[in-house]
Design brief:
Blueprint: E1 4-12, H1 15-23, E2 28-32, H2 46-57, E3 62-67, H3 76-89, E4 93-96, E5 111-113, H4 122-130, E6 135-137, H5 144-153, E7 158-164, H6 176-181, E8 198-201, E9 207-212, E10 219-221, H7 226-232, E11 234-239, H8 246-265, E12 270-272, E13 294-295, E14 317-326, E15 329-333, E16 343-347, E17 353-355, E18 374-379, H9 381-389, E19 396-404, E20 408-415, E21 420-428, E22 432-433, H10 437-448, E23 456-464, E24 469-470, H11 473-497, E25 522-526, H12 530-533, H13 538-541, E26 548-552, E27 555-562, E28 567-572
Parallel strand pairs: 1-2, 1-11, 1-12, 2-3, 3-4, 4-5, 5-6, 6-7, 7-11, 10-13, 19-23
Antiparallel strand pairs: 7-10, 8-9, 8-26, 14-15, 14-18, 16-17, 16-18, 19-20, 20-21, 22-24, 25-28, 26-27, 27-28
Helix pairs in contact: 1-2, 1-8, 2-3, 5-7, 10-11
Length: about 575
């Protein structure tokens, strides 16, 4: 039976974070290159990317480079050069937005259609497949039903975000930052105005809601729906966070690795997309990493409670309620163990973020908590230290065969997952008959199965001797060192030689090319609806959805509502 490979795709701010992601279970990582990577603060040299590719290749893991900003004409040649440099460095694919790249003389590197292409319909994905894209990153707003429909009518591999920060606007269709401050999201310079506090006004200027983060969403967490997504047609599961540090990436990658491994272990039709398994030395818990609270967004249709109107900052994990407090101390009803240095936060009675000034339950200044306040821990100091120290311990299982030859011994290693011969080494030496066969065999097994801090984990050893032998530890050690070198070279060479190559890319893409300077009338197009979120949906109230306005300082924008399609648009207000 042909199996379907399931890919866990993690973010990498830099090469160290990328290697940490792989060491903690990622099948692939995506990282910004020297330029045009949609994150101004997350660029990386080709030399660093090559180093990451070499590490990833050991596990047959992939490296995708983001080349997903809109480009000016005078930047196309540099983008083309970056594409060639990435291919030569060992990169497995480029994630792109600008269709002008398809008109260039590119290397045979596979191209993935970024979520910035606004991939929300069957027709759009069909179009991208016909253009020759090797993978399509679907829009976060899609439901399981919509994903299934896309899968039924296309064959291109589908990638879907399952965790991390959410953009309130359709990806690639947000111009608010560019409009306000000339910082374009499509050029990697988003100022995140969606995280700011806004006032909500009716058409008469009456303030309906004051000073709330009306465009800010909770963070995505679709860990409960992974198997449903697999059955709907997703094969690449993406974690957002190319500006996140290693501790975030380690924890969240490990969390989804365990979730996917559980599914794969009982599904013979599925397999992991890379080699190796990890042993973790910390408590895996996504609530302990940066989060604004979690939502599964629109995967099962529209729902309330997906916004984070009170704060755009991380709340962390809920630990309990305040049972008693005075201005400098508080007692928290919790089953969690707190440590000196932990960070605690809460929403005060005005629903604004409050913080414990010295991050302990005994404070040296007023903390502002109150009886019944829900307390969250956004920094678990002891846990943080454990994550920072975690190496991931990713190992590749192998089987070993040690056999006797006419002049010495032959030592072979097989990759356990697909049981294919991998490498062998031979040594010529005197063969010594063992006086104590049982003890000699025990010593051989002990020494042959000890592979120390290598990436290989011997699971089984088969001995093929005519008679019990006594083999010196130095001989076994020499053969193991040779096997490690050969295995390492074989894995890297196999990955390099088996990299995918793109099909012929169609060049007729003029109708899909966007102007990086163009700002349309609709500055945002959103599935999230402020009316619906605040009990003002016309379908629920029976009242007409008249325009509303949001205001932050000198900036005021009109909200228009397409109730037929359940969309909200943020429009510029004419002077």
């Amino acid at each position: 039976m042909k199996t379907k490979k399931i890919e866990l795709l993690s973010p990498a701010k830099d090469v160290e974070v990328g290697m940490a992601a792989i060491n903690h279970g990622a099948d692939a990582v995506y990282i910004g290159g020297p330029d045009f990577g949609a994150r101004e603060k997350a660029s990386n040299s080709i030399q660093d990317i090559e180093r990451l590719c070499r590490h990833a290749a050991l596990y047959d893991a992939k490296v995708f480079v983001t080349l997903n900003t809109l480009l000016y004409n005078n930047e196309l040649e540099r983008a083309r050069k970056i594409a060639y440099d990435c291919w030569n460095a060992g990169v497995d694919a480029l994630i792109v937005q600008d269709m002008q790249l398809l008109q260039l003389d590119l290397p045979p590197i596979p191209l993935h259609a970024s979520t910035q292409c606004d991939n929300l319909t069957v027709e759009k994905v069909q179009q991208l497949e016909q253009l020759g894209f090797s993978q399509v990153v679907l829009g976060r707003e899609l439901s399981l039903k919509q994903i299934r429909e896309i899968r039924e009518k296309t064959t291109v591999p589908l990638e879907f975000f399952v965790h991390g920060a959410l953009c309130v606007s359709h990806s690639g269709r947000c111009y608010l930052s560019q409009y306000i401050g000339n910082r374009s999201a499509n050029r990697g310079a988003c100022a995140q105005p969606c995280r700011l506090p806004w006032d909500l006004l009716d058409e008469n200027g009456k303030v309906l809601i004051k000073n709330r983060h009306l465009l800010c969403l909770k963070d995505l967490n679709n860990s409960a729906h992974l198997e449903e997504l697999i059955d709907a047609g997703i094969t690449s599961f993406k974690i957002e966070g190319r500006l996140k540090d290693a501790d975030y990436v380690k924890n969240v990658t490990a969390y989804y690795r365990q979730k996917l491994d559980e599914i794969i272990s009982r599904r013979p039709d599925l397999e992991q997309a890379s080699y190796g398994h990890c042993n973790y030395t910390f408590d895996i818990n996504p609530e302990k990493s940066f989060n604004r609270g979690f939502t599964d967004y629109f995967i099962n249709g529209r729902q309330k409670g997906i916004g984070s109107p009170f704060t755009p900052k991380s709340m962390g994990e809920y630990i309990g309620e305040v049972s008693w407090c005075n201005p400098l101390r508080m007692e928290i009803d919790t089953d969690k163990t707190l440590h000196n240095g932990d960070g605690l936060c809460f929403l005060n009675q005005d629903k604004n973020i409050g913080r414990d000034g010295v991050h302990t339950v005994s404070t040296n200044r007023p903390h502002g908590a109150f009886r019944g306040a829900k307390i969250y821990r956004n920094l678990d100091l002891e846990w943080q230290k454990q994550v920072e120290a975690s190496p991931g311990n990713r190992k590749i299982d192998i089987d070993l065969v040690l056999s006797e030859t006419e002049t010495g011994y032959d030592f072979s290693a097989f990759l356990r997952r697909d049981a294919r011969p991998c490498v062998s080494t031979s040594i010529q030496c005197d063969k010594i008959l063992a006086n104590n066969p049982e003890k000699a065999t025990e010593n051989i097994q002990k020494k042959a199965l000890q592979w120390g801090d290598t990436i290989f984990n011997p699971v089984n050893l088969e001995l093929k001797f005519k008679e019990p032998r006594l083999i010196p530890a130095s001989v076994i050690g020499e053969m193991k060192r040779d096997l490690v070198m050969k295995l390492t070279n074989e894995l890297m060479e196999n990955h390099w030689n088996n990299r995918g190559r793109h099909t012929d890319i169609a060049h007729n893409v003029s109708s899909m090319i966007d102007n990086p300077d163009e700002i349309p009338a609709a500055l945002m197009t959103c599935h999230h609806c402020i009316r619906y979120a605040n009990g003002m949906c016309s379908k629920e109230t029976g009242q007409k959805a008249t325009p509303l306005f949001i205001r932050n300082g000198a900036n005021t924008f009109c909200l228009e509502f397409d109730c037929r399609n359940c969309l909200m648009r943020v429009m510029a207000v004419a002077d």
